[in-house]
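This is your field. Please look over both lines of this record.
***
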Amino acid sequence: MISIGTSGWRYPEWRDGFYRGVPQRLWLSHLAAQVDTIEVNSSFYRLQPPAYYRKWAAETPTGFTFAVKGSKLVTHHKRLRHAEDALKAFLETLALGPKQGPIIWQLPPSLRFDAAVVQDFLAALPPGRHAFEPRHESFRTDAYFDLLHTHNVAHVISDAPTFPCIEAVTADFAYVRLHGHDELYISSYSDEQLDEWARKIHEWDRDTYVYFDNTMHGAAPYNALDLMARSTSPARR
């Protein structure tokens, strides 16, 4: 299973491009008709009511999946420490049913690798697919990779000019975030770059989720569709 989509969908910058002529209330269904998956970003900034998740699930096709970004109360305020209550509050909001995909835990750039902290947090996670996106070079270590492997948690392979791109596949699925190779959240991916990512996905030979986060100038949905054309997507076999 290769699922490819975008990080979020509510971008005014897409109004005159990808969403041209589409009412804002239909933006989600318009995008979801063309890609396999979308990351929910708003969940990072504040807890979303369960009714929102149910509404989003109802607006998307059968077989569609949402990845959900974990709350910054857990990752940035608690910094993974003593986060039991914040983690429980976040998990209780999720109401996507069968459309629930991985939960991504995006760590702050200042958070260094601490094996004991990461071990305790991974042990507290509920069953399901989880992915870790560290943004500090200290995570480039076998001790980190081994912890993820033990808990079957995916390391997020991030492509960006401002934080490390650590390519490691640590679970029975892979998770990729493409933030813009040259300019963060802006630059579009070239044909050659998309070909290279398609090659890597093929070589990993496992379920893979890919999200384009180069959203600011509207490249993300077009890049997602271009990568889909280079890859194998069950919804389009």
About this structure: The longest strand covers residues 100-106.
